[in-house]
Amino acid sequence: MFKFLKRLRGKDVDASAPEQENQPAAIIEVLPELDVPAKDVAPVEQEAETKTQTTALKSDIVANNAESKEPDLVSVELPKRSLGTGIRSLFSDSMDIDELEDILILADFGVETAEEIATELKREANRQGATTDPELRLLLKDLLAKRLSRTDSALNLDDGTLPYVILVVGVNGAGKTTTIGKLARWLKDGDWEVVLGAADTYRAAAVDQLETWAKRADSPIVKPVKEGADPASVAYQTVEMAIRTQADIAIIDTAGRLQNKKDLMDELGKLRRAVEKQTKISEVLLVIDATNGQNAMSQARAFTEVAEVTGIVMTKLDGTAKGGILYALQKELNLPIKLVGVGEQINDFAFFSPEEFAKGLVAKK
Question: Alpha-carbon distance 86 to 341, whole Å?
């Protein structure tokens, strides 16, 4: 579906060597001296020591970059995935064109959009002489797919600036860690080398969950040594490790607290600056739980105010009959839906396809 650029790796592994299954992912803990200052160090000395450590790290990275040549790149696609039957239909029975506007409103398309779609469908049906249930469903499918299509829905993994860095934001419980784990596994299945970063450091559960997903995705993870450690340090060392190990991509989990927008904005800003000392950020993906309906809209608005979001990931689409929120989010925020989750299994994750989504919405039960 989409073409991406990744590092070209030689096939020089001995094919006769037995494969090792279920190898645990490497776990790299953030060095405590980078984010936990010694108690007996005076403030000035402490600041100087921290600067020295940071300068040393930067020097090592610059030296490594200077010594390494530009990587050979190859254009690839990720393994094929489909939304399958994970999208709930709008209709429980035959499609009644006169009831369409109400059905779309109930599915969270929004009043104005529902009226526009219903009016456009009636006009097109009259023009084409479509009257039967299959004909009307086909017209509606094409209409929805057209409205949902965008030219910027691919992940920004095609400029060859390695490692790519993806920051993942969203409220707690939306499915951030699950999204990161599924995306990492998908990339690994496509022969990408991935490093994960657990920068949601104030939630021990989030770190533990991401560690579990790292093992499932067979990817190394950088995590804090204690709850509440500096998220920027985790992000910095995640990218540092990705550079050092010549990984293709680093995916970093971030805090999901919206109680204080200023604190969250400050934390994300500091984290961004830590990453951008080493490389640019390719994506900031906002994870939204589709079952939250209109609450998802308010959450999305809040996060777009504090984070430079580049795309949306919709999770739990299989658990809601209100699929219209996806259309409403894309239209209201002018941001593309890039990825969708449609189930609990690790492979229930795919690029957003307007055609498949629209087909699922109008499917006959």
Answer: 9
CB 167 within 8 A of CB 281: yes
Determine the Cα–Cα distance for residues 225 and 234; give it in Å rounded to an integer. 10
Rg for the chain, CA atoms, rounded: 23
Beta bridge partners of 223: 29
Phi, psi of 147, rounded to the nearest 5 degrees: -70, -30
pLDDT at 217 over 80: yes
What is the structure's pLDDT at 365? 64
Q: Are 180 and 336 in contact (CB under 8 A)?
A: no
d(CA 206, CA 199): 9
Q: Is residue 77 classed exposed, middle or buried when 0-12, 13-18 and 19+ CB atoms within 10 A define those classes? A: exposed
pLDDT at 71: 77
What's at 264, amino acid-wise?
L
**What length is written for the chain?**
365
- What is the rounded CA–CA span in Å between residue 348 and residue 341? 6
Give 23 or 228, the one with higher predicted confidence.
Answer: 228
- Residue 27's SS3 state is strand
- What is the token pair recorded at 318? 């299989």
- Give the C-alpha separation, 193 to 7, whole Å: 9
Residue 56 structure tokens = 């040393």
Strand, coil or helix: 194? strand
Nearest to 175 by CA among 108, 230, 256, 249: 256
The SS3 call for residue 310 is coil
CB 177 within 8 A of CB 210: yes
In whole angstroms, give the CA distance from residue 107 to residue 104.
5
